[in-house]
User: Fold Diacylglycerol/lipid kinase family protein from Deinococcus antarcticus.
Amino acid sequence: MTLTSRPPLSPFTVLLNAHAGRGLARRKWPALQAELERRAIPFTLLETASADEACRHMQTLAPGTPVMTVGGDGTVAGILPFLVESGRPLAVIPLGSGNDFAGMLGLKPGDFGEALDRLAYAPRAADVLDIHVLEGDLAGQRRLMLNGLGMGFDAQVNQAMKRAPARWPGLARYAWGALTSIRHLHLLPVTVQVDGQPFYSGPSCLCAVMNGTRYGGGFRISPRSDARDGLLNVVASGPIDRAELVKLMLQVLAASHLDKPKVHATPGRHVSVRWDSPIALHIDGEDAGMVRSLQVTVRPNAVQLLNA
Ligand SMILES: Nc1ncnc2c1ncn2[C@@H]1O[C@H](COP(=O)(O)OP(=O)(O)OP(=O)(O)O)[C@@H](O)[C@H]1O
Assistant:
């Protein structure tokens, strides 16, 4: 980390998603506000009821306006198109449930003091992944994401974990969602190409395309990812049964799965994935319906981070 005598920033637009962390952001906001004032960090508060409302405001911000998100990964993901290559730098205050992207940057969930201390560091650029859905519910649409997407089992888990008890921590809810999804396990033929070359073709239950290392609040699906290396990482399963899937999940928790024979993982710059029939998709942890084929391209250094 480099300390810098950076020129003063113009006032932050603080984007508060009071729903994030199942109310954690709302509960912590008074203390965070007091801390911003104590540190004489100038800001304008923008509390929004939805990502759409946040986007409408983001469009009106002058280039160069620093943005501080108070929430989880979904709060950042919602406004990403207005941060990427826009000159609007981002500071993340991780007050969501999973905070996977913030965790990857080394920010501790709930610890806004440390997140504010890090504003003294030199800004650093991070890569963003650009998704183009070819066939599926979002056919023809492009999406940007910071952390990663998953197709198949992990997207089903993502849907199931929303039904887990709200008071549980993110990792426990992910594990619960995973166990309830295991009984619906089914394999579908998939074809994955990386940088124009065949990479994996065969039955699979999940394929993830990652910029960050983890999702689900701690499942380290792609431990070799680095959001600053100009690369994405693909992780696809081969044909596995339920018992192997449980074992694989434990290996993912320990980040020891990448060298296993039925796990196919590689870095790249561009990936295209085509399933034989539609399969569940999540993008940065948000349910994105069903997909049959999509492409993902890395956009190196596309967003400036102020406290990474
Ligand atoms: N700016 C916003 N204002 C209000 N609601 C938002 C905003 N951005 C996103 N949302 C909605 O709030 C939900 C929760 O936000 P977020 O994902 O940040 O928190 P979380 O789910 O608790 O944390 P994490 O994604 O890190 O697990 C999102 O799924 C989205 O539907």
Notes: The chain is about 25% helix and 35% strand. The pocket of adenosine-5'-triphosphate is lined by residues 15, 17, 19-21, 48-51, 54, 71-75, 78, 96-99, 170, 285-286 (CB under 6 Å). The chain has two domains: 12-122, 128-301. The chain has a mean pLDDT of 92.
